[in-house]
Amino acid sequence: MDIDIYFQPIKALEYAKNTLGYFTDFHTKDNFPFWEESDIAIIGVNEDRGTYSNKGCAFGADLIREDLFGLYHHNKDIKICDLGNIFPGAKVEDTYHAVSDVIQNLIKKNVFIVILGGSQDITFANYKAYEKLEQTVNLVSIDSKFDLGNDEEDLSSSNFLSKIILHKPNYLFNYGHLGYQTYYVSPDETKLMNDLYFDYTRLGEIQEDVQNAEPLIRNADILSVDVSSVRSSELSSNSGSGPNGFYGDEICQLMRYAGMSDKLSSVGFYEFNPNTGASKMSAKLIGQMIWCLIDGFTNRKKDYPIGTKEKYTRYRVHVEGTEHELVFYKSDKTDRWWMDVPYPPDKRVRFERHHLVPCTYAEYKCSSDNEIPDLWWRTYRKLN
Fold it and tell me: How far apart are CA 54 and CA 52, in angstroms?
């Protein structure tokens, strides 16, 4: 399909040698990139009709580009294209359709997608792209709160998660949330997360050791980043930003983990509003976040344990007092861990991608101490 019909070109600029911009194939008035041959595609979505509190975030993509493409690139073998900005539809639903259609086509060609939003309701359009691929997916959000909102209202940046959970047909296998701040989250919302066996981690737990977030990111197909998850002293261009949140180096480390994940196929950066706060400095940080994402991508190890397990060390642990034997795999290449969670044979097609769950040495140690890790139990209940 000719996806160029959805895009408006961006201004052609000159970039210094060896910068990202120097190596990127841009959509200009005279050129549309050969995206089928690209490893990474960047798309802007100038849409904010789905937000009630952050109008103006539709105009952030080009400001992010100004800083991103001036950063130096260290792997010339990775092919990057910038397809430009998706034309806003006559109705917001038209924009959602265009986003879904573009992402679906890119995924079919195994192109890694970076979305420059726009409001975070675009995550729903990103999610729907996988529906036509008939693929159950894992979604992870980095956000200070759960965007559950009122599911009876129109789709918005404050209720898109409810819309995803309730969407039929349902092809969401797992939802993970990183960086929530407890005073922004109601007890009913955490109860829902527990009832659905979803994974969620407080900001403080990640800041104690940022590596705590790596397995959940490694398990995602889609990553949705609300930039208000970064504290306002570091990134102020968002009406929802607050005094607490991730520091710049922490969010950049999370982006590097995301880029290194063999499973992840699309990432969206949302809610950057150039009309508020120190927009130039905020754009610099977002540009560096994306640089770290791309740097992680260039360092992918391709050690997801599918097919042969020859390059992995296998550990079998029987937990006393239970009927369960837990199986772990440790990559000889990266020392990363996975759990192999059993599931019924008749569900093989639906769950083939989800029974190998990224974990850490801590889960193995827990099982060695005759305790079944919470992550294993939550996954087992979803699979069975």
Answer: 6
User: What letter would DSSP give residue 240?
Assistant: T
DSSP readout, 329-346? Answer: EEETTT--EEEE----GG
Instruction: Determine contact, residues 58/121, Cβ cutoff 8 Å.
Output: no
Q: How far apart are CA 355 and CA 71, in angstroms?
A: 38
Contacts of 243 (CB under 8 A, 6+ apart): 231, 232, 233
Query: Is 60 exceeded by the pLDDT of residue 349?
Result: no
b/e per residue, 179-206, with b = 16+ CB within 10 A? bbbeeebeeebeebbeeebbbbebbeeb
pTM over 0.85: yes
Q: How far apart are the first and last CA of the chain?
A: 39
Q: Does the pLDDT of residue 355 top 80, yes or no? A: yes
pLDDT digits (tens, 9 = 90+) for 206-258: 999 999 999 999 999 999 999 999 999 999 999 888 999 999 999 999 999 99
Q: Is the pLDDT of residue 345 over 80?
A: no
Handedness of CA 36, 37, 41, 46 (dihedral sign): negative
Tell me how far CA of residue 214 lies from CA of 56, 93, 220, 259, in angstroms.
32, 34, 10, 11
Identify the architecture of domain 3-298 in CATH. 3-Layer(aba) Sandwich (3.40)
| Spans of all domains in the chain | 3-298, 312-383
**297: its two tokens:** 């991508």
Strand partners, 40: 80, 112
* Token digits of residue 305: 């344990």
Query: Do the beta carbons of residue 329 and residue 357 sit within 8 Å?
Result: no
